[in-house]
Amino acid sequence: MPLPGFDELYEDAARGTPLTVVAVGAADPTVLAALALARSLGWIRPVVTGRADEIKAVAARLDLDLSAFTILDSQKPADDAVAAIRSGRAQLLMKGQIATPELMKAVLDRDNGLRTGKPVCQVVLMEIPRDGRRFLLTDTGIIIRPTLEQKAGLIDHALAVSRALGEPSPSVALMAATEKATEAMPDTLDASELARQAAEGGFGGARVAGPLSFDLAYAADAGKKKRIAGEVVGAADAMVFPDLLSANLTVKAIMYTADCRFGGVLCGATRPVVFMSRADTTETRLNSLAYAIRVARFG
User: Which of 2, 81, 138, 166 has a 20 to 30 Å separation from 160 between CA atoms?
Assistant: First the structure.
């Protein structure tokens, strides 16, 4: 079955007990507005960390009532947010107006962070309404040049997220600039090796194919024109990229040029992290919240 769209995720988020979300970098209009809207929809109980005076000033400019928010006045907001997750006082961490390295320093702290031993990566859920397509992209935010072992971990994350979203047998495309393995492009050799491992049951019998170019992973007619067939061709539920450069450029090109909806979650920590760009809109933050709630409940 196809991955759910955001309308379905919005409906799902309203079901069940609201989750407590702790947001870092909440002195931002889009962050506070998204949290307030998610609370009004019955999705979450909002907690925010940072300088209380700055958070309250932003809320005042928005004419936003913070009476339902818990404010943790903090000089180390990322550390205190991670501590709230570790203690069980919150179930989801949310990235707001904070630089990724600063947040990751707290998340990956060896003594007080949220390490699991698995690679930490961003998994973006992309919805293209025109084509009725929904698919995952990873890693779009953290690992600059993943090793072969880390790429296997990215596949595992993509499979886990797909299954949490309700697709029990996801198809995974290992992305490259060409569908042919060649020594001139070492990433194609990694893709070929990972596809071989998958064929031998290395990923629980999941359908993993590569190397595949974007057109072959996305569009069935591209496979027909190139005379390339396979279960994953034109039907990828997830795309695993060879490096951060290709993944980040691809996802942002789609975000800014296509009619699409998207959200992001950080995987590999002890709990999912609502994770997108500081430049994102209130709608995208709300999308990411709904997406992360689904992953937290079913992942």
Answer: 81
d(CA 213, CA 70): 46
Q: If DSSP states are collapsed to H, E and C, what string results for 26-76?
A: CCCHHHHHHHHHHHHCCCEEEEEEECHHHHHHHHHHHCCCCCCCEEEECCC
Distances (CA, A) of 298 to 22, 131, 192, 242: 20, 27, 31, 27
Q: How many residues does the chain have?
A: 299
CATH of domain 117-268: 3.40.718.10
Give the pLDDT confidence of 155-214 residue by residue, as tens digits.
999 999 999 999 999 999 999 999 999 999 999 999 999 999 999 999 987 899 999 999
CATH topology for the 1-115 domain: Rossmann fold (3.40.50)
Distance CA 168, CA 73 (A): 42
How many CA atoms lie less than 13 Å away from 189 in the CB half-sphere?
6
